[in-house]
């Protein structure tokens, strides 16, 4: 195999998708304004044409020569911005060329997902998209506003429940410490409350890291954001775990 695959790849994938086939449906993030995030900072968002994606799927099938992938992740930030008919066509093509797949996954951005009808979500789930990684980050509106998440807790809960009801597995990502020292308790309590409403299959917990070049770094340097100490973060984790019914996996960085 060549080092460079003959199809387009995006810059990131969830850690759980290390062994997955990667198929790029969109480039970048349509929002690109969350203060802590630098994932697609210098990239203009675009939705790829089905013909382009089809060519990539065919090239990937030829490149991997029958490799029995069990999971495929749709890159980059917002597959749900594709027209439903286009997304269904892409899912069918992926399954046709990679018949061993058991799982097709994607990031699920709440602000986009809530524009889908329950019937559309079911159709998409039945076409094979059966797990979503959702960046809720926090269950507190005051924190989501401060970090310019571009969505509300109500929409995060609605999107998560819609996807669950459609038959998809949900993995919610949250960030311990996102509220800084000032709002740590609000972050813990409101996030536990939102998680209980969604009742996701998985919860991925990351601790806040101030990325170089992020807007959070500017706010932090200007004194507008005070990081929690390790003791505060531990209290935050203990607090929300006490109030959250779900079991969790904790990772030490903000890596997706
Ligand atoms: S956290 Fe997600 S929605 Fe926010 S800018 Fe980054 S990729 Fe976009």
Helical content, roughly?
Answer: 25-40%
**Rg, Å, rounded:** 18 Å
Bound molecules: iron/sulfur cluster
State the end-to-end CA separation.
27 Å
Counting H and I runs of at least 4 residues, what is the number of helices? 9
Query: Low-confidence parts lasting 5 or more residues at pLDDT below 50?
Result: 249-255
CATH level 1 name: Alpha Beta
Number of domains: 1
Largest sheet: 7 strands, parallel
Strand order of the largest sheet: 1-4-5-6-7-8-9
**What is the N-to-C succession of helices and strands?**
EEEHEHEHHEHHEHEHHE
CATH architecture: Alpha-Beta Barrel
Shape by Cα distribution = globular
Classification by helices and strands? alpha/beta
CATH superfamily: Aldolase class I
Mean pLDDT: 91
Q: Compute the number of strand runs.
A: 9
Strand content: 15-25%
CATH topology: TIM Barrel
Q: Any overview of this molecule?
A:
This protein is α/β, with parallel strands linked by helices. It has one domain (15-250): Aldolase class I (TIM Barrel). It contains nine helices and nine strands. The strands form two sheets. The protein has a seven-stranded parallel β-sheet. Helix 4 (118-126) crosses helix 6 (153-166). The two termini are 27 Å apart. The structure holds iron/sulfur cluster.
């Amino acid at each position: 195999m060549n080092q460079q695959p003959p199809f387009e790849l995006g810059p990131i994938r969830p850690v759980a998708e290390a062994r997955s086939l990667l198929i790029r449906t969109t480039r970048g993030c349509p929002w690109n304004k969350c203060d802590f995030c630098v994932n697609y900072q210098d990239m203009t968002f675009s939705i790829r044409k089905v013909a382009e994606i089809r060519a990539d799927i065919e090239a990937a099938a030829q490149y991997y020569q029958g490799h029995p992938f069990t999971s495929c992740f749709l890159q980059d930030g917002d597959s749900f911005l594709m027209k439903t008919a286009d997304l269904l066509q892409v899912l069918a093509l992926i399954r046709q060329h990679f018949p061993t797949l058991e799982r097709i996954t994607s990031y699920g951005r709440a602000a986009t997902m809530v524009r889908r009808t329950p019937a559309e979500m079911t159709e998409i789930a039945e076409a094979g998209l059966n797990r979503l990684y959702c960046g809720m980050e926090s269950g507190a509106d005051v924190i989501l506003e401060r970090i310019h998440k571009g969505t509300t807790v109500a929409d995060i809960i609605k999107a998560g429940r819609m996807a669950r009801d459609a038959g998809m597995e949900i993995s919610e990502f949250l960030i311990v410490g996102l509220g800084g020292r000032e709002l740590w308790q609000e972050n813990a309590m409101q996030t536990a409350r939102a998680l209980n409403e969604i009742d996701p299959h998985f919860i991925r917990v990351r601790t806040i890291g101030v990325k170089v070049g992020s807007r959070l770094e500017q706010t932090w340097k200007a004194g507008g954001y005070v990081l929690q100490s390790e003791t505060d973060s531990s209290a935050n984790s203990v607090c929300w775990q006490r109030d959250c019914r779900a079991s969790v996996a904790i990772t030490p960085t903000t890596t997706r």
